[in-house]
TrEMBL record:
Its main location: membrane. It is a multi-pass membrane protein. The chain crosses the membrane at residues 27-49, 61-81, 102-130, 136-158, 170-188, 226-248. This is Transport permease protein. It holds the Pfam family ABC2_membrane.
Amino acid sequence: MATHFLADTAVLTGRTLRHITRSIDTIITTAITPIAMMLMFVYVFGGAIDTGPVSYVNYMLPGILLITIASGVSYTAFRLFNDIRGGIFERFQSMPIARSGALWAHVLTSLVANVISLVVVVGVALVMGFRSGAGVLAWLAVAGILVLFTLALTWLAVIPGLTAKTVDGASAFAYPLIFLPFISSAFVPTDTMPGPVRAFADHQPVTSIVNTIRAMFTQQPVGTGIWTALAWSGGILVVAYVLATLVYRRKIS
């Protein structure tokens, strides 16, 4: 049974990955847009923001990486909605394939596409002057956090992908996710913000994740922040997975 599920999921994942390679707007949105934002923040606003001894490109890269993920998962909801509307899932149900394979294919495609986008963004950051003395273990830890966060947001994206009535509704859920890093420590220190805004920024998930990744890049102690970051990402993942699975079962029943 497990072998059957894995084989079906692999085939269906290949199908959704081919759709990405044929869609230039997906590549532009998930990679080029965050890069454009990075260029703007570093070369237009960076000189006006005091980040101490840390260069601004080093300071803001973790936030750009999270925006890259948020931009990418919006396409998961979009692709899933199109498959639902096009009757693809109904066709799959009439075939001898694992029912959950189609859903997992979209999740794995999101993970692969986002990893590629993240690598591209980091590559551009290196050209812009990003440097890190972090060792292999620190880089692996950063990668693990980003993958966990990607999975959490991807399963969150599955829900509107299955329930939305329009294409705009399916992808619009990502807008708050893209905006959230702007009210965090991603681009400016939170101690420069007004009281209520700072309170929100200090206690929302993006700040803990950004601070943890930044500390790893700069070889600083991560403290208890890493557990907060993992708790946020893991908690969102569990809740989103359970809700998405329930919605999917009702949808195909």
